[in-house]
Amino acid sequence: MPPSSKRAGSRVLKAASSSLRLNILKLLFDRGPLSYTEIMKLLKLSPSKDAGRFAYHLKVLLNLDLIEPDAESKKYMLTEMGKSLVDFANRIEERTLKKRMLVRTSRLSIEPFDRNKIAESLIREAGVPFDLAHKIARETEERLLKLDTKYLTAPLIREFVNAILIERGLEEYRHKLTRLGLPVYDVTQLIKSMGAISADVEAIRAAAGNRVIEEYTLLNTLPRDIADAHLSGTLNLNNLASWILKIDSFVHDLRFFFKYGLVFKEQSSDYMVIQPPKSFRAALNLIVNILRIASTEISREQGLEHFNVFLAPFIKGLSENDVRDEINLFLSSINLTVPTGVSISVDLRVPEFLSEHRAIGPRGDVTGVYGDYAEESLTLASLIVEALGEACKSKAVFNPSPIIKLYPGRLSSEEEGVVYGAHSLASYGPPYFVNLLPEGEERASHLATGERFPENWKRDWELDTVRVGCMGSVTVNLPRAFYEAKGNREAFFSNIYDFMEKALRALEIKFLTIKQRAYEGLLPLLSYGGGRDPYCRLGNSLFLVSIAGLNETISLATKRAIYEGNEPLKFAEEISSYLVRITSEFSKRREMRCALSLTLESEASRRMATLDLEHYGLAEVNVSGSKDRPYYSDLNSLLYNANISLDNYLAIEERLHTFFSGRHLIKIPIRGESPEELLSISRKITSGFKIPLYTFDTTIVYCSSCHKTFRGEQSKCPICGSTGTITRFIREDARYKAAPY
User: pLDDT tier at 169 (50, 70, 90 boundaries)?
Assistant: First the structure.
């Protein structure tokens, strides 16, 4: 090599010995051509203090042909020699780093640091262009080199990458690269909180997984405006953790499995082949298995419609004692092993529209028509109520929940016996009652959570009321629409439209996502039967929009409570009518079965009230509860907090039910009423009020020492006097759950 070449090489390497000069070269390598001022700014040099030093080093690089000025843009750029020098320096640093830095990866392994893996992740996960990905990876590497840490972790590296993306204004890439999960502190607190409420370890794992899915849904599935509306409290996407995975509820048709059994055709399925049941015991066992399997695809509630009617052919010829024993075992199996709520629909009579339908009996054979089994059907109804009554003598049973269908007018003595038993049971919470007075209600199916599936979509009860479910629900913050309108009526209704449009769009996204899950084979039971006629008729699913704060909004607008005269109630009807119009138009346009719900999610109402209180201040908002525990109320709260008669309250509910037909559950508070007094209330409802679903509500207290259940608030056990052995249950939403004192 000629001496001049050696001297040139040494001068170039000497140029790289200055950290400032090397940083200038790397900056131009990563960012491209930059002006004198831009280089100084990015290197965080002071124009007054560092100008001379910077000019000197820049001149050295120019003299060595490592950089050159661009005549047109007046910016400096790397020469080929400069690029080679930066590449050489990077390779040396990379080799040093590999020896020094280890990474604990998300694959639970320890590996040497590799810059290329950062670039690969940027390209694969965020769609970053190749050259830009490698520049960001190189800058990340340089920053990590400056750390004095024993090891790196994948989350730490990702944080550095995201910081660089933000600095460069690449927010969309950063959004896609966000890591989901819980900080160590949050997991620790989660474990402690679950222990405090006596949950099991599976609940901890589920709660942690739910948080990840919730974050993923908000970041990656929903449009930004809908995600922001949820986070801000304008909307609440109820049951967000299951938004992209499961439907909320489902009404089973037991005839389907009595006829075909349960045979999963997927080759990868581990489930046994179950033939159509040959006996009553086999039929009940099949139902429990179906409920357990379905609970992996349904998040909240499963309904067994016409339960006693469809099972009636299986008890023909059996003794009552045998049937009673099997029912007891069946109810305890559901209570102990099915994680979702289960609603058992009990008919006092074989419905007229079912009486001539072919009855499916043992082995899937047709055994006449269901009208032939009226006696067996009533026997089953009686034994179900009796079994739950016996169980509740020691501890109240809140799952499964019987839904008793009450006919207006006179009943037979046997029917009266079942109804009386159900009202005796109502003192301890479990039963719900369907009022069959409204026209067409006999053909509708109901769930304990309040969902109602009438024969109003395809105009066929088999298509509209069974093998259908509620896809999901969104709660809309009605008071916020009023706050933001600042007293302007037109702005108020415009805000309602905007909120509803986002809510309905969110439900449509869930619909499309769940259909995709079914297509991917992730919902094997709901997709059971194949593409032509799958078990779950997803296209007939119900989509619900709940309204939070109707009472508070009416009070703000009219200065009176909803029950204080005709004006507040008329305004409530005007709002409700507008909500129905928006929902109906969307339903027709998108061919989705959308409806309104008057049953409020307590978690959503508390979250919305809390956020509104923080955002607008106490002077501007109208919330129920206290400053520390605010919430938006529903109509049911009138019976607990307002001086209003039951008749007046039921009349208000009846008027509003015509608008809120998708989900509507009335909870009637009771104290020490006898079964006869409760039965009198039911007769009043079934003879004069067109409200579909109601239940009686009281606080339930259980003593684990005495194994006894008591009604009403108790500070200690009435028998043993203990305070540490009692558990309090309240029906905050539709179902009872343990609540602290």
Answer: confident
> Pairing state of beta strands 247-252 and 298-304?
parallel
Model confidence at 1, in pLDDT bands (50, 70, 90)? very low
What is the end-to-end Cα distance of the chain in Å, rounded? 89
SS3 call for 149? coil
Asked if residue 436 lies in contact with residue 378, where contact means CB atoms within 8 angstroms, the answer is no
Which uninterrupted H or E stretch holds 473?
strand 468-477
Q: Let me know: does 542 contact 595? Beta carbons within 8 Å.
A: yes
Spacing of C-alpha 525 from chain mean position: 20
CA-to-CA dists, residue 590 to 244, 320, 508, 518, 657, angstroms? 19, 51, 8, 20, 24
Dihedral (Cα; 632, 636, 642, 646), 10-degree rounding: 170
- What pLDDT, in 10s, does the model give residues 104-119? 766 656 677 788 888 8
Query: How far apart (Å, rounded) are the C-alpha atoms in residues 185 and 724?
Result: 30
Rounded Cα distance between 353 and 439, Å, is 14
Give 700's strand partners: 711, 729
Q: Pseudo-torsion of CA 136, 142, 147, 150, nearest 10°? A: 90
Q: Give per-residue burial for 130-169: e unless 16+ CB within 10 Å, then b.
A: eebbbbbbbbbbbebeeeeeeebebeebbebbbebbeebe
At 81, which helix (H) or strand (E)? helix 80-100
| CA angle centred on 258, ends 421 and 404, rounded to 5° | 20
pTM: 0.82
Q: Are 217 and 517 in contact (CB under 8 A)?
A: no
Q: Which residues contact 407 (CB under 8 A, 6 or more apart)?
A: 348, 349, 415, 436, 686
Contacts with 24 (C-beta within 8 Å, 6 or more apart), sequence order: 39, 43, 57, 58, 61, 67
**Alpha helices, H only, 151-223:** 154-167, 171-177, 184-196, 201-216
Cis peptide before 69 (omega within 30 of 0): no
CB 225 within 8 A of CB 502: yes
CA distance linking residue 222 with residue 654, whole number of Å: 36
Average pLDDT of the chain?
88
- Give the tokens for residue 634: 């529903």
